Amino acid sequence: MLMLQSKLFTKTRREDPKDEQAKNAKLLIRAGFINKEMAGAYDLLPLGLRVVEKIKSIVREEMEKLGSQEILMTSIQRKDVWEKTGRWSDEVVDVWFKSALQVGGEVGFGWSHEEPIGDMMRNYILSFRDLPFSVYQFQTKLRNEVRAKSGIMRGREFMMKDMYSFSLGKEDHDRFYAAAIEAYNKVFARVGIGADTFVTFAAGGAFTKFSHEFQTITEAGEDAIYLNREKNIAINEEVLNDETLASLGVKREDLEKVSTAEVGNVFNFGTEKGEALGLFFKDQSGESIPVWMGSYGIGITRLMGVLVEKFSDEKGIIWPKSVAPFDAHIIVIGGMDSEAMIAANKLTETLEARGVEILLDDREASAGEKFSDADLFGIPTRIVISPKTLEEGKLEVKDRATGEVKKISEEELVSLF
Ligand code: ATP
Ligand code: MG
Known about the structure:
Blueprint: E1 2-4, H1 23-30, E2 34-38, E3 41-44, H2 46-65, E4 69-70, E5 76-78, H3 79-83, E6 97-100, E7 106-109, H4 114-120, E8 133-142, E9 157-167, H5 170-190, E10 197-202, E11 211-217, E12 223-228, E13 233-236, H6 242-248, E14 256-270, H7 272-277, E15 280-282, E16 288-290, E17 292-299, H8 300-310, E18 312-313, E19 316-317, E20 328-332, H9 339-353, E21 358-361, H10 367-377, E22 381-385, H11 387-392, E23 395-399, E24 405-408, H12 410-415
Parallel strand pairs: 1-21, 4-8, 10-13, 20-21, 20-22
Antiparallel strand pairs: 2-3, 5-7, 6-7, 8-9, 9-17, 10-11, 11-14, 12-13, 12-14, 14-17, 15-16, 18-19, 22-23, 23-24
The chain binds adenosine-5'-triphosphate and magnesium ion.
Adenosine-5'-triphosphate (ATP) binds at residues 112, 143, 145, 154-155, 158, 160, 262-265, 297, 299, 301-302.
């Protein structure tokens, strides 16, 4: 896959946008990955969209391995469904965006899909034969957040992966819940934050004392957790009390407080949702039993923001290889029909054949401008082809993460991919 930078729809900026406090949004806007519409609402430009799609692919792979199937629900939601669980009220849920139909009647815009999916499943779950299963989606969620100051980490509109499990009972549910935690750990490891992401005891969960959040250490996070790295125990400050400490067998003084961002969470509803929504199945003896439900979220766009917060320097973004918009950034120093461009085209063909995704800087711009844009974009491998490198018969290759610059042969370069 090859993209010519002269054709790429984007624009970099030297100055930080004035109306942004968050590093993730400042850098993503300066690097031309996103555009700001208003606080908490951003447009994804080609580079930003490519990163989001890479993250989605990783998440999709891990959800499919769990046996979950992808669906896509509507964002327009019924009032009567949310009334069944008492969550239509603005006093209970303070992030609702709502509107009225012209023909009469109120609708809500999906801030979550827990109730609508429970209601929907009344059409698809009739007997024990229909269970267990899970489905997931990548959905735009709309939330009327009061404070939207963390860039794409707290959007009023954002992309979430939400998955829902439907089980016969506790044992069945627990098995899937444990597998989902494993799958989430894999996702966070694959996007490069495995070492800094902790399964954290948090509030909520029916018939269980806790829900589990996936909290990633970052100064930009809005949460705080108490962590024991040795024992791999993390507790959200919202549930830090004597009872929690005793039940987990840790002492307050053995925990360090760190600031974190919640990148995902898993939640056990037990039979509560099923009962409230009227979601029952007939067991073997014909008895009506409430379906056991679980809910599992990952903040896709928040995750992208967290990656920028964690992986950047004064020059720009440093994408982990697994989610970078391109694998290689080839910088040509020389005009359209220079020797350097001819050599770059040849190299591109070789790399493309190996499945390498390439951004080729073919613009009529100064070397300095090209280099600083490359640092800002943060593509893992930068390759320079100039009259000088041609003369030396080597390529100049820079690793964006380490900053290391090497002169290597084309064969050596190709073997890197
Ligand atoms: P928070 O406490 O940060 O508001 P939440 O508890 O409301 O999060 P959930 O409703 O469980 O979050 O949503 C699932 C995931 O979606 C979260 O773990 C988080 O990664 C992401 N998320 C939640 N709210 C936002 C938002 N406003 N912008 C971007 N991502 C979000
Ligand atoms: Mg919230």
